[in-house]
Structure formats: C-alpha cells, structure tokens
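Sorry to interrupt, but I need a hand with the structure work. It will help me judge whether the discrete encoding reads sensibly. Write everything out right here, beneath this request:
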Amino acid sequence: MDQNNSSRPLLAIQDLSLSCQGAPVLADINLTVYPHQITAIVGADGAGKTVLLKVLSGLERKISGKIVLAGEAVEALPPWEVVKRGLVYVPEGMRVFPQMSVLENLEVGAYCRREGMAGRLDLVFRVFPELRHLVGQPAGLLSGGQQRMVTLGRGIMSEPRLLLLDEPFMGLSPKLVTRFCNSFRDLARAGITLLISGQHIRRVLKIAEKAYILENGRIIRSGAGLDLLEDQHLQEILFIH
C-alpha cells in the first residue's frame, strides 16, 4: 500500500534514543509504519534491531524521544498497556508450551482479548491451515516450522493492530521461508500491519513495502524493500548476495 493513501501512520517514532552505561545503543531513530503495510528493519547482528522492538513493546523504557501509536503517545506505558492498544511483539526464539495442545497455546494469546476470539482463531487457521488439523496435538510434538506457526498464531490471537516480528525466518528452510512470506502477505491483506526485523536481509527486503537499514543503532538508509535490495552500495556494505 502506498503511504500516500493513508491519512496518517499507525506508528511514528520520533528522535528515539537509548543509551546503556553512557554508550549509545539507539540514536535519533525516526521511523513510520503505515496501516496494512509490511515494514522491515534490517541490519547485521548487533545493529540494534531487537533492542528497538523491545523499546516499542514497552520492555525497555530508559529512552528519550516519542513513540506514537494511532495518534497516542505510548513511550511511557508498561508492556501490558501497549498490548491492550494493539501492539504485539513476537520475539526471536519464542517457544510453544510443549505439554499444552495447539489450541490451548493459541488461546493463551487471547488472555487479554477474549471477545471475538473465534474470529481470530479462524484467521489463524486461514493463514496457517496446517494447524486446523493439529489442534488437539501437544505443541511440543510439532515440527519446528509448525511450532513457529503456533507462536505467530498466538500473536494473532492477541488481536494486534501492529505485529512486531523479530527474526521470524531464523532456522527455517528456504521452502518454509517462502511459505511464511506468503502468510505475512495474507496477514497484511487481513488488516494486520507488520513490522519485521531480521539479519536475513534479502529475505526480508523482498516482502517489505518500506524498509529501514539499521547500523550501529542508527538508520542509515530507508526506501522500498526491492529498491534497497538492488542498491549496489548497500549490497557491498551489508554483504547482500
């Protein structure tokens, strides 16, 4: 979706900075995410991607700057209040509850949003139809790819307006990466806005309508994902092959 067709961004980050023991971790971050887009934050390991997502989700609050979600400043809110406003974070390596069934795992995601749970469960099954036939299985017995579907489904069950995904392709085969890319597009079409971070730069840029390149805690470039992917200078400094 062209951002010009949206009246205002769903998320706006303004002059966001974070330091740890006097050393800058994030510096002067300015970033916007428009409704129903797939937006990406990419960069090498240690660039600050995970820290930024933790800041947005309320897990890190020693910051300066503004975080505006749907017109409301949320930079001082605790994590549970951020979730209530529709910003849901799925961290890298998020695990299933292995002894609980797939259905029970998904229902855990709806603990703050019981109303309308059936509709969100239907969306999970439309995006990940494999899970529909596994609802009674202990989640710990599923394959790695299926468990990733469950953790993402748990995020969907929280009724997100904005879903933050940290390294969603980590450890997946190329075939599953393609499968998940299609699923993310399905979610965007269903009205869920996605902000994806990752060091798998080529994979992420291919599906991002807008992307930001993060290096040493600073945004060094932004643009359409495919445009950045074809940028010769970025290919050299980020080792995109």
The longest strand covers residues 23-33. The chain has nine helices and ten strands.
